[in-house]
Design brief:
Blueprint: H1 3-31, H2 40-67, H3 75-124, E1 129-133, E2 139-142, H4 144-150, H5 154-157, H6 162-166, H7 173-184, E3 189-196, E4 202-212, E5 220-227, H8 229-256, H9 263-277, H10 282-293, H11 304-307, H12 315-321, H13 324-333, H14 341-346, H15 368-383, H16 394-403, H17 411-422, H18 430-434
Antiparallel strand pairs: 1-2, 1-5, 3-4, 4-5
The protein binds fe (ii) ion.
Length: 440
Amino acid sequence: MNIRDRRVLSAGILAACLAAEILFTQILKINIVYTHVFYIPVFLAALWWGFSWGVALSFGFAALHYLFGFRSAPLEEAVRSAVFFGVGTSISLLSSVFRINREQMITITRENEKQAELFRNLFENNPDGIVLCDKQENVIDANAAFLEMFGWNIREAQGLPLADVVLGEAEEYQNGVALGRRIIEGELIDQKVTRYRRDGAAFPVSIVGVPVHTDTEEPISCCVYRDLTDLQRSYEKLRSMVHSGIETFGQIIEQRDPYTAGHQKRVAELALAIARETGMRDDEAEGVYYASLVHDIGKISIPAEILSKPAKLNEMEFALLKGHPEAGADILASIDFPWPVSSLVRQHHERMDGSGYPLGLRGDAILPGARVIAVADVVEAMASDRPYRPSLGLDAALDEIASGKGRLFDARAVDACLALFRENRFSWSAAAVEGVSGKY
Ligand SMILES: [Fe+2]
């Protein structure tokens, strides 16, 4: 091969490489993300394309030599050139594949890193405590808020059972373990529970737990803890305000009827104890307590002379007095309590056999809470001094409800009340006793 042929050959290789590279770069860019460089069809395709280009260009140059009067290229030189073209172009194409693939991989890695950083920031800077656990409920990772909430550092917490971190040696330990298992098994958990800091201090939290499933790894659980201490304090404050408000409301009537001073407070304490003894739910028992605190508020509509009359009431006066449950219910109806306070007040003089007032309701038509208040009301009233008589004594009061058990009074409420007094499990608080000058 002479010098001119070599130059032509070099120019041909260069042109083929550039053309093929441009072409393949554009084609491969489209699907390179999904194409592995060692995927055999890609390799063969690249080789074939390169070789075809090489052969075509080689014969093209041979034809140019001939047409423009150069020395005609022998056939073996044309074939050799084709091989050079083919191999050169193939190498160029494969290098393009590698280069593009690498660029794509770098881009993908950067995207992944950006996403990972975003999620890491969301995880770390979240004001709620977040903890990730493996299938065995051991801590994999936890964010700063979680660690601060429970008083741990990540090195100590990692690998420990979550229940050890959030419950320590608390009674609820097994419940906590069971909760974690439910999450791993696919249940979504949203609960308000008590958990424990590392120093053993209990505090209220809300937990939202979700299972996290991936295609390749075992499921893990992600739990988000929110410290409800501040919320609980606000709730307690509000509750205390509601309590004082209702208590003050109840005292209005006691100002007009000094003989019953403290009566509602004492009924409320006893009714709450009876309600709990009968197994009533806490929130329902709370409603019974607050309704008891104002159960005689309707007496505000009754003349003070009748309320404090030092003798038994005549028929007309008694008829007026019997209007107080309805009047009280009307007063309370407009207040949006979370319990049926108005209905409880209306029904506190109803009796199981329908002999009560104002509606003459029977049995189950009377609210369970009202049946409890009825028992507490009778016991407290009989055990206290009244304008028209001195105290009949606690024993007489208990005999009265025992004799009316099932007929006048709810049997469960009566049994609960008797059990509380006979087993010395109930006594009125000092504040409630004050109203009757240390009577109890
Ligand atoms: Fe009453």
